[in-house]
Every structure is written in structure tokens, then in C-alpha cells.
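Narrative of activities, Objective 1.

The group set out to show that a structural description can be obtained from nothing but a protein's sequence at a throughput compatible with the screening campaign. Below is one input-output pair from the validation batch, recorded exactly as produced.
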Amino acid sequence: MKKSIFSLILYLILMTSLSCSSPIQEFTEKPNIIIFMVDDLGWTDLGSYGSEFYETPTIDKIASNGVRFTNAYSASSVCSPTRAAIMTGKYPAKTTITDWIEGHKYPYAKLKIPNWKMYLDTKENTLPEYLKIEGYTTANIGKWHLGEDTIYWPEHQGFDINKGGYSKGGPKGHYFSPYQNPRLTDGSKGEYLTDRLTDEAIQFMNKSKEKPFFLYLSHYAVHTKLEAKKDIIEKYKKKISPNNQHQNPIYAAMLESVDESLERLLKNLEETGKIDNTIIFFMSDNGGLTKVTSNAPLRDGKGSIYEGGIKVPMIIYAPKKIKTSSINNTPVITMDVFASIIDLLNINTVSPIDGESLIPLILQEKELKRNALYWHYPHYHQEGAVPYSAIREGDWKLIETLEDNKLQLYHLSEDIGETKNVALKHPSKVNELKQKLDTWRTETGAQIPVTNPDFDKAKERKKIK
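Output recorded for this entry:
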């Protein structure tokens, strides 16, 4: 019932809205849209972002022929909140999906975490729902991780097709068939999950002949557990050198298979004549996991509010539409992808969104209207993070740890590794950013953890399932 009511409301809004031309004038018809998501991909894990060990020639190709963002951020330092932000265009604090589902449980920690939402509410108006009204065929291929109950899975959130998306954040079985995935039939023995998802994506694109398509290809790779093809692993074992920042041959092999996935998609688009009317958004859901990769010179990794946890690669590629390759240093965030797609199609959303379209930024070199980006994570993470909030404005970044309300201030252009807390040297800047952070948390209804009556210092980091 909710979906039919939403469709009617959106249809009426679209029919009564003023028409205007697309920001990308070269699209003479509605473009095919691909969001190519890599799980846990770190900021330095691509050749185009500095790696001398991992080989990603296809991703590097679109980076050199599209727009490569050097200050792109995920909406959260963990996956589920970022993925909800892609679907809704909203900060995780607004959807209250603020941790990965089901999250880590620390019953004896200093703070009691709030009663956050462990699913993407079907009352939310999602990106594929908007696109279906616009005549798109939609498919989720790969990871979903936005609800344990089947009613919250992709086929109930605006996707016509769902291959591989369900409750889990990583392969329940292995990266090789059998997959033990209720939304993906097993393949032949030895079939590799990344290859299989690519097969499904190409099959979907080939069937989308009469309508434009929206493909959300959300790879499980390079999420743990690490598994890859043996011959590729051996290739990287031979490359290991103490001079390389990156050293993990299995991770490298997984990433090479992801790169091959993109290569196959591009080849298919070229062969079917669809490439000139397709736009691709390449991104990661959070920073790299430090147990398996290095995010240096960034500090820390997945789960952390420091740059290694939230700074990610982001590329926009539209051959012959975005005519000049460029590097953009503007701070951007997950929800901007949602906003950019909505802008491309001139859609009026039913409810306000937090992202800002990147189309005027990359085509007309207009600065974004917003002044700051925000994060809120009222949880504990097994990598060591405690509940926090943060704001980035310009080159300044203020972090508040919620256990003790201590404030840290970093100037990122001078200290990208966040090694020098300069809060004591700049008290006025701390006060200014703290006021803005407080205002944002109030306006978004951010859930704040409270004192835990069961706090036990000796057991505070003891985790339960």
C-alpha cells in the first residue's frame, strides 16, 4: 500500500512541476545509471589513488577519463548506514541507521547505545522508487545489508530485480560457489562470486532494451573473509616488497577481480552501443580495514572517525558527456550521488535530502552551496572506535568523542594524517565548529547514547553476539 500511495504522490508532483533542461545537455534521452560499489575499499587502494601494489587499470582508466574526487567521504565509517544514505539521500542520523546491521554489542561499555534502526524502513522514498516513476528498469546485484527481515530487501524497496542482496554484509559461505545466499542460486563448482555478480549485471543490462536502466552493482568484495583466485594470488605474492605500502596478495587478487568486473561492464556497454548514454558512479562504502590493507597517510581505518575510516575513492564517468578529465578537491559525500542522479533527471523529491548535486560542480565549476559535512556514530566498533560525532568545514575537522565529550581539532591540508590536535591553539574555531555540530545534531534528531548503568571498567570492551 505504501508503495502505491508513494507512486501516486510522486507522479502528481512530477506532472505539476516546471520542466527544465538536463544539466548534462548531451544526454538526449534518459541516461542509463550505474552505481558501482566496492565494499571496504580504502582511499589509497587504487593505482589512480596512489597504490603501487594493487593493479586496477580499468578503474584507473575511468578515473583518468572522468572526474576523480580526492576529498570524497562515506556517510559513515561502516557499511549499512552508508548504503542507506545512497538509497535515501539522507544522513544516517536522520534514518537512525547508524551502525552496520546488526552491529557490535558491548553491554558493559561506558555508554548505552540508542535504540537505532536495524533496517531500511519501507516508508523511506528510495532512489530506485524515484527512477521507476521515471520509467527505469532497476536492479540490485550484490550486497544489500539493510534489514534482516525479507520485507526490507531490495525487491520491496524499488528494485525490479534482486540478485544476491539479502541481510548479510559478507558472504555467508565463501566467495566460491556454493554461496549459501537465498537470493543467488549456486553456480558451478569453483565459480567466483565477483564474476557471477558481473554475469548477472550484464544479463540485466542486455535485457534492458526498451527502457533506461538503473544498476546498483554492489560487490561483496573486498570485504573479509579474504578469498581469491589462486593464480592471481600467486601473481601478487611475487610482487611483495618491503618498499610497497600494500602487502596483501589475497586482497590484491580480490581487487583485481573487481577491476575485471568493471572492464567487462564497459566492454558490454560499448558492444551494445549503450556506453555513450550511460553514467557511472564508482565508490566505496567506508574506509579500508587496517587488518588487510593500509590507508596511510590517513589515520586508522574502517569504523573510525579519522580520515582512514571515512575517506574513500569516488569517480564519476560518462564518456563523451563529461568531456574533460579532471581532479576535484571539493569535499563530497555519499548522499551527493543520490542528489546528482535526481538532478540529472530533474526529479522533485517528496522529502528533503541532505546531498547536493555534483553536476554543476563538475560541468560548470560552481562551488557547492553547503559549508560543512557531518558524521554521527553513537556506537562502539571492534576496531577500537568509541561513540563520536564530527564536522568538516573547509580544511578544519572537529571530532567529539561522546564518552568524555573531549574535542579534537585538525587542519587537514596541513595534517592529513591527523597527528596534531590543535584544539588548544584555536579555541575560537573549536567553539564555532562545536556550535554548528550541536545545531546539526538537534536538527537531524541524532540519537545520543546515555550513561550505562551496567558499566564495568574491567569488562567494557567485552563483546557479545
